[in-house]
Design brief:
This protein is α/β, with parallel strands linked by helices and about 160 residues long. It has a single domain, classed as Trna Endonuclease, Chain: A, domain 1. It has five helices and six strands, in the order H-E-H-H-E-E-H-E-H-E-E. The protein has a six-stranded mixed β-sheet, sandwiched between helices. The longest helix has 20 residues, at about 5-25. It is globular and about 40 Å long.
């Protein structure tokens, strides 16, 4: 992977990869880049009070979308980081998961999870737990050269482990 890539350079390849994974599993998925703005389509599925708060604060996940499972819309939020993950990144993803009531909350980086972060999270699952959906942030490593998530990189469990 090129060292001069920006975080924004990762958005579309990761969006495409994740959209494919969700479509393979559920047959449908809508996922868009929301780092700068929410489209009308996304605004239509999010709670108004959350949108107002986020707009006022200037906060948005990098990717937002949904799948429809058993006639219910399941919200997806994704935070993308180009550098090795830090505790702040986990809490940022956790914040979006909580605000959106996201069923799927993902944190993706092209860098592997550092061993000290992995150990910290393994011993303290409350750090990546949240009150909606999957009940935890799922972390993955994106391989830019292959355009896919490194399968054995999912933490703490594979993406659809409990589906």
């Amino acid at each position: 992977m090129k060292n001069d890539l920006t975080e924004k350079d990762l958005y579309d390849p990761i969006r495409q990869c994740l959209e494919d994974k969700f479509r393979e599993k559920f047959g449908n998925c809508y996922l868009e880049i929301t780092s700068d703005a929410f489209s009308q389509k996304i605004k239509g599925v999010l709670e108004t009070d959350v949108l107002l708060y986020l707009s006022k604060e200037g906060l948005r996940p990098d990717l937002t979308g949904y799948v429809i499972k058993n006639r219910f819309r399941r919200i997806i939020v994704v935070e993308i980081k180009k550098d090795p993950l830090k505790a702040h990144d986990i809490y940022q993803a956790k914040m979006y998961a909580e605000l959106f009531g996201a069923h799927y909350a993902l944190l993706i980086s092209p860098k592997p999870i550092q061993e000290e972060v992995r150990r910290l999270l393994a011993k303290n699952p409350r750090l990546y737990s949240h009150s909606a959906g999957y009940k935890r942030i799922i972390i993955g490593q994106f391989d830019m050269d292959k355009g896919e998530i490194v399968e054995h990189s999912w933490f703490p469990d594979p993406l659809f482990e409990f589906e």
